[in-house]
Specification:
about 250 residues, two-stranded antiparallel ribbon, 14 helices
């Protein structure tokens, strides 16, 4: 490690291990260190050499960095060896509520990694508490995490709940999760997708149609039985077609 990098690492360590509530001052000093430098240091920490508790303190400090790329890298680092769902949950909650979408997405990916390593009781407790939270970022984060392949008890029921969320963004994420986990519970998740293709939000309908084509319909939406000698297209497909003038 070059002397300058050693000095920067010692500086960050001192801020992280010796902070006593002077968060604003620490943030100002962090911004003086080039972002790519901080990212390199985090990569070195990921390779080992620090106790998990000290790494967590450093990550907690860097999560307050004003630069989104640093906060995103912190979110990714929390999925590394030595961290657990219990030890990182409060910090993950802050990162999934970040003002930058790329940070929130990275934190949701890390949440999936941590859930994969947790025991079933902790998995179920976090999944249900976040899915029913009054905080939309937590509901969105668990919906995004469920689109990653890992075992979770009653995942279909969690997705079913999220698909009824008042936030279109959460519903769209639930549609993607239903697509990924469709084989776990075809009946429940098939009904979820069928319901979401008629959602008021265009973004949700688009996500649901994409998932339904992959898992339910094949290449095209189904055609309902003919009525009065004319084929009657499904509601969702008919909405996408131009209306013809009606002869008087």
């Amino acid at each position: 490690m070059r002397p300058l990098r050693q000095a920067a690492l010692r500086h960050l360590a001192a801020l992280a291990l010796g902070r006593t509530g002077q968060v604003d001052a620490a943030r100002m000093q962090l911004s003086d260190i080039p972002a790519h430098f901080v990212e390199e240091l985090l990569e070195e920490l990921d390779r080992g050499g620090w106790r998990p508790a000290d790494r967590l303190r450093l990550c907690a400090l860097l999560a307050s960095d004003p630069r989104p790329r640093v906060r995103r890298r912190v979110a990714e680092s929390l999925g590394g060896t030595g961290f657990s769902l219990a030890s990182t949950q409060r910090l993950i909650e802050a990162l999934v509520s970040d003002r930058c979408n790329s940070v929130r997405a990275a934190a949701a990916d890390t949440l999936a990694t941590l859930l994969r390593e947790a025991d079933e009781l902790d998995q179920a407790d976090l999944a249900w508490s976040w899915a029913t939270s009054a905080r939309r970022p937590l509901r969105l984060a668990i919906a995004r995490a469920l689109s990653m392949p890992f075992a979770l008890p009653a995942a279909d029921l969690v997705i079913e709940l999220l698909a009824s969320d008042r936030s279109p963004e959460v519903c769209a994420a639930a549609a993607r999760a239903a697509e990924v986990r469709f084989d776990e519970s075809p009946d429940v998740l098939g009904a979820v997708l069928e319901g979401l293709v008629a959602h008021p939000s265009r973004a949700v309908r688009r996500a649901a149609r994409r998932a339904a084509r992959a898992r339910l319909w094949g290449a095209a939406p189904p055609v309902t039985p003919a009525r009065a000698g004319r084929p009657f297209l499904s509601l969702e497909l008919s909405r996408s077609l131009p209306l013809s003038p009606v002869a008087s």
